[in-house]
Amino acid sequence: MCAIRVGRFWYNPVMRTVLESAFFDRDPAVVARALLGMFVVRMVEGHEVSLMITETEAYAGAEDRASHARFGKTARTAPMFGPPSTTYVYFTYGMHHMLNVACQAEGMPSAVLIRGAGNIVGPARLTKALAVDRGLSGQPLGKEVGLWFEDRGVVVAAQDIQVTPRVGVEYAGACARRLWRFVVRTASARTKSAR
DNA sequence: GCAGTGATCATA
DNA sequence: ATGATCACTGCC
Q: Which nucleotide is nearest to A124 (CA to C1')?
């Protein structure tokens, strides 16, 4: 039985369970926590690239003053209101793409931002590495679009998770202090402290 | 420390 | 139509 090491974590390469929409049909903070140790899988130029997720953030609906859904449904944010496992990719600062997955039932806006995976730290670096752009926004995760998530049996213990406020949402008042950022503590994926 | 870059959304 | 803002990164 050959196990493969990812940082301090080991997994069995035989186990590959694709995360279906039910996984995402939960509170975004629960999903964000549960995604640590899961793998994001992307087809890029005919090759399957998979990376263990190490950093996520949760975003909720209108009551979350840090969420893009706080102003209601718009052309850009409509995927956040879609069924669970809908991708929400947006373009910001004139150059960066951000990868999110919608959570909860259709009509209930929420999402998890994937901020880091494998050795990649930073949400825009991740989308660059995985060739993710707005063309994916609004599409359901799956092999049809070449982007999906898998459970490969990595278990991340609570003691290995750092929980912090979300990055870059100081404008959100009290919501900025919500502890909705989840980071796997590893030697390689050491992160900057929240700004 | 801060420039770069352009979509997005509120305001009009 | 206009302007401020932005769930960021890389280079100074």
A: C8
Nearest nt (C1') to A96 (CA)? C8
Distance CA A126, CA A93 (A): 16
> Do the beta carbons of residue A186 and residue A54 sit within 8 Å?
yes
Q: Is the CB of A66 under 7 A from strand C?
A: yes
Distance CA A127, CA A137 (A): 12
Residues 6+ apart with CB under 8 A from A63: none
The predicted-structure confidence for A23-76, as pLDDT tens digits, reads as follows: 999 999 999 999 999 999 999 999 999 999 999 999 999 999 999 999 999 999
pLDDT of residue A2: 63
Residue closest to C9 C1′ by Cα:
A124
pLDDT at site A190: 43
Pairing of strands A39-44, A17-18: unpaired
**What's the CA A124/C1' C10 distance, rounded, in angstroms?**
12
pLDDT beyond 70 at A191: no
Q: Hey, what are A136's tokens?
A: 């994916």
- Decide yes or no: CATH 2.40.30.170 for domain A15-184: no
- What global pTM score does this model have? 0.93
Beta carbon of A168 within 7 Å of strand C?
A: yes
